[in-house]
From TrEMBL, chain A:
Residues 58-206 form the Thiamine pyrophosphate enzyme TPP-binding domain. Its cofactor is [4Fe-4S] cluster. InterPro entries: 2-oxoacid:Fd_oxidoreductase (IPR051457), OFOB (IPR011896), THDP-binding (IPR029061), TPP_enzyme_TPP-bd (IPR011766). Keywords: Oxidoreductase. It comes from Azospirillum aestuarii. This is 2-oxoacid:ferredoxin oxidoreductase subunit beta. It holds the Pfam family TPP_enzyme_C. Transmembrane segments: none annotated. PANTHER family: 2-OXOGLUTARATE OXIDOREDUCTASE SUBUNIT KORB, 2-OXOGLUTARATE OXIDOREDUCTASE SUBUNIT KORB-RELATED. CDD domains: TPP_OGFOR. The keyword Lipid metabolism does not apply.
TrEMBL record, chain B:
SUPFAM superfamilies: Pyruvate-ferredoxin oxidoreductase, PFOR, domain III (SSF53323), Thiamin diphosphate-binding fold (THDP-binding) (SSF52518), TK C-terminal domain-like (SSF52922). The lineage of its organism: Bacteria, Pseudomonadati, Pseudomonadota, Alphaproteobacteria, Rhodospirillales. It comes from Azospirillum aestuarii. InterPro entries: 2-oxoacid/accept_OxRdtase_asu (IPR022367), Pyruvate:ferred/Flavod_OxRd (IPR050722), Pyrv/ketoisovalerate_OxRed_cat (IPR019752), Pyrv_Fd/Flavodoxin_OxRdtase_N (IPR002880), Pyrv_flavodox_OxRed_cen (IPR002869), THDP-binding (IPR029061), Transketo_C/PFOR_II (IPR009014). Pfam families: POR, POR_N. This is 2-oxoacid:acceptor oxidoreductase subunit alpha.
Amino acid sequence: MDTHLTDDVVGPLPGDYKSDVKPIWCPGCGDYSVLAGITRAMANMGLERHDTVVVSGIGCSSRIPAYTSVYGYHTVHGRSLAVASGVKLARPELNVLIFGGDGDGFSIGGNHFLHACRRNVDMTYIVMDNQVYGMTKGQASPTTEADWCESKLTPEGPGVNPIQPVALALACGANFVARGFSNNPNEVARLIVEGVKHPGFSVIHILSPCVTFRPEQRGWKSTVHPYGREPTDDPNEAMRAVLEDDGFGLGIFLAGNRRPFQPESTATHSIAQIEEGFAV
Amino acid sequence: MTVDSVTIALVGSGGAGAMTAGQMLLDAAANVGWYGLMSRSTGPQIRGGEAAALVRLSPTPVHGPGDRFDIIIAFDWQNVERFAAELPLSEKSVIITDPSQGEVPAVLAASGAKQVELPIKELAGRIPGGRVNMVGLGAVAAIVGLPRAGIDAVIQKALGKKGDAAIQASNAGIDAGSREAAGWSLGLELAAPNKEGATRWNISGNEAAGLGALKGGVKFCAAYPITPATEILEWLAPNLAKTGGKLVQAEDELASIAMCLGASFSGVPSITATAGPGLSLMTECIGLGVASETPVVIVDVQRGGPSTGIPTKSEQSDLNIAVYGLHGDAPHLVVGPTSIGDCLFTTQWAVHLAEALQTPAIVLSDQAMGQSRAIVDKPADAPHKANRLLATDLGGEGKYLRYANTESGVSPAAIPGMPGGEHTADGLEHAENALPSSQASDHQKQLDKRLRKLTSYDYGDAWADIEGEGEIAVVTWGSATGPSREAVRRLEAAGTKARLVAIRLISPVQPAKLAAALDGVSKVLVVEQTHGAQFHKFLRGHYDLPGAVSVFSRPGPLPIRAREVHETLLSLI
């Protein structure tokens, strides 16, 4: 690992957390900046690469693990949160982060999202929302507007209302909920650091434009705005505020106090003792 | 005069306590040195509904259900017609019936079985706190000659905490039933137990599978309840905790297999248990385990299918999905225990194989083994442990090859916590360094390697149970092994040599070994419990079977009985 040596700083650099693999993303994709934010956050925290596991499903943003230099598991569509829960429950000492998109997380993986929020395992989910399936060339996702008519699959628009990921995360019991925007990787990094440090399940919703299938999202840079309130530890207060938000407010909505789920066990019996229970 | 086997059905709708009485009968028989088997016939009701405890007792180990029921004792006849087909009787059978519960249903009476009246309800009613099932237990105990000391120990164990009144009520009920039956002289007294026998266990197939997981070194289980596999998970919950492992309840089977893969990716041997519908949901992630070379064990306790099918009844019809259900060319392990006790060995072996070969292993148990309880000789300790090949030389920065194309096909694994082993395991096809690749050469190389590690491995003798000699052979698997074994032994006892080959290692196939096992055989009978003869077609697809091949194949829920296999064999000679 390269180390950055100055008079008073010895620590890893963001580049230490990048692999040599060139991303498959389109030029201008928001995910480049999110990747930069992720590696900055890892460097900021000085995570040991060998003690860090990143898990993803399928989709453009789910490609991130191979672009990092930590342990990664690029799994199947929609199941990243369940796989990551297995990692953290089995090996609580590891740092576990999950990367994915809106389709992977809220459509095919929706049930796991619900249960990851309520299970509250100590891990951090960075979901890059571009309101479209990019890898399959532009179909509506669960966060796409009902009247978006640019998909060949739903030329009249999907006709169903989008979900609000931040509100959903709060409703399902996530312990830390924040929103960032890919254009500001330093802020993305800050939110990730806060999320990783906060106990329990942290959801970081990142607006990350798809410049190929949703070019109008380039305009998000003038739509986003600071959320404008201090983080609360009260889910009810956070929920009330989120319901008034326009979906583009950035910041930390909730830093709650729910206890993470982490069953512990210590061997108290030998297998021979257990077997004795079967003896006639 | 005594008999060598007695088969008893205790029948009653919910609340009658038929299952409790059956369980106590089995436990009491175990206490006095007999062997036994208890299976259940239940409907879908959560509580109540028709139920029967099906118990077979013998001085020697019991391999499967009896040919017919020697005794049926009914606390009532509600809905018995729903499973009357599961209660074969003959004119030698005895139906013990309470006159207050009406006539013996015609479907049973037609067998010509002897009918004996016992006023069960009235006898129980005379005892404060008396229960019909204890009266029935007393009657059955007297008929088969079960010594009272065996029952006393069971009563003490079951009711000790409830106090003397409960014990006295049970004892009085048992005494009442015994007194009535003592004079019947039905000729069903069971031969004396062999006291010299080995240490014996009282265990169900589902418990045995759970124990096999523990003995193999499993430390993580993600669970989603499903009939008839739930008992594996419920047994593992406290026992994993006692041995330093963890069990977590998942939101569905998609999550349970995914959680297991995550735990295993981080180096912790993992297992889950399910039935056909759950296995269907898991298949995508099992394929991920194949591609990412992440070991995991899935116990499928088969039930009648397809779809929801018959959840409480047994069948062997998940063979095809277990072997062929993954998309792509996805070689993996499929094993099948050959008895209730063998659920221990086979599950333990599956953990060992999955870890050694870094691939998923499906254990095909079934309801007949999983939810039945047997008195068995204590299974021998097997050496099989989880022992994944870990990388010792990571080769310096960026040099580690997670999917190195080794001669054995097994690539030394790096797991989180090992500096220098960082890589991204992937379900995308990949190069040796784990990076995604769609190149033909990488695909070919990785497909070859993932197949080679399975086909070049030495599975030893455990691939099958092979018994006997002669020119006629039964080839079978799973819970069809028990009745097949008994049928072969009957043939031998009558002077005809015969062989039994029960294949434990379903996949990968072992053509050379089966050819050797069937050397000199001119007639083969394939025995299985499916409608579509799945096992026969599987054998035809992968093996050359010698001589004339016949098939005994029938779907559930009717169990295969030794008499049926025996008669089929006789017809072939």
